Amino acid sequence: MQITVPSLLRIKPKAISKIGKYLAQKKCLQIALFWGEGIQELLGETVKISLENSEINIISEKVWASGHLEDIFEQSLELAGSKTKAILAIGGGKVIDCCKYMAFSNQIPLFAAPTAISNDGFCSPMSSLLVKGKKRSLKTTLPQGVIIDTEIIQKAPPKFFFSGIGDLISKHTSIFDWKLSFKRTGEYVDDFAVMVSFNALENCVNYPDKDLNNLEYLQIVASSLLLSGVAMEIAGSSRPASGSEHLISHAYDQIAQTPSMHGLQVGVASYAISYLQEQTFHKVEKDLQRTGFFSFMQTNPLNKQEFLEAIKLAPSLKENFYTILSEKNNISRLLKFVQEDEFINQMLK
Length: 349
Description:
The protein is of the alpha/beta class. Helices cover 52% and strands 13% of the residues.
């Protein structure tokens, strides 16, 4: 199996002002530039100057807001008929997910410049898109380049950062579920993917100075999320980064009147799931506390009743996906735990 990983990685202050230089180094001189909503106004001048200084030709430029596959497919056809040699996506998860699919469809390089680190999707081999109105995860390829300006992600609201933390902490429970599936169903487990995913988590939670003003810490978190995405490419599936906790989050998206951010939901769900897994329980609790995730969720809680309903729905969302929720009586055990546990009830209201 061939594994593709980014060959250009720049995670440091002022990286966005050198983006033209990075593209020129890769000989990507004719690009389509896609912005997330609201990002062009913030970074447009800096990016344009950098691209012009490196003689990068912008073939087309758009602010991208749609997550519908039909719109993305239409845009892909436009790119196919142009002289575009690479795509540059600057913004949040939606524009990067859409551009990953466009780049995959046209077999051209993608350079992703996320402006927030709310999950590991900016460097994963899948895109979360709307297909006939329903969110689906579709196979894509990883970006050829990832450029993260730590000064920019520092300016994002704290919820984006803690969403990324929640997505990282979920590797405890997702890896447990993957190994459980091996024991129960014989599903193949890639040990290298497990190691990469787990080390990404450990690098983050063991870093001593967890201050959001510390750019080095933001670099560590961004690098850890990137490695989590690479682990999925190695495994050929989402298994090293997504388990029963992600099923609960997806179910919460469907049920909640006002869903929260993906990583925030996943972080809370990881704590709940760790109770069933037992051996991950104290690890998850400890990591939620020492990263500041628990404190953040105390003031930004999820809806308790909707969370309980999401637990009931979760096992039905993905066929042939064995997790701890597949085990007999675990749904009722988990519902009872969520009703009674003091720690989780400070993250649910």
